[in-house]
Fold this sequence. Notes:
Layout: H1 2-10, E1 17-22, H2 26-37, E2 42-47
Parallel strand pairs: 1-2
Amino acid sequence: MDEVVRRRGEESADGVEFVFCEAASADDVAQISGLLRGPGRVVPVVLGTVGGTAWCFEVRAGEPEE
């Protein structure tokens, strides 16, 4: 989680960066919630669930469609 917060603080005007992270504690959830409330070019992609998010998507392994 510290990596996501650090990278969000260092972001530049060039492009968007997706950073995968996992909320392992209540402190992590609070940090993610804070990041999601404001704009930014570093977008945290949370592995798992965080309550109160505006949107989410789910990825699962499966059989390819023919």
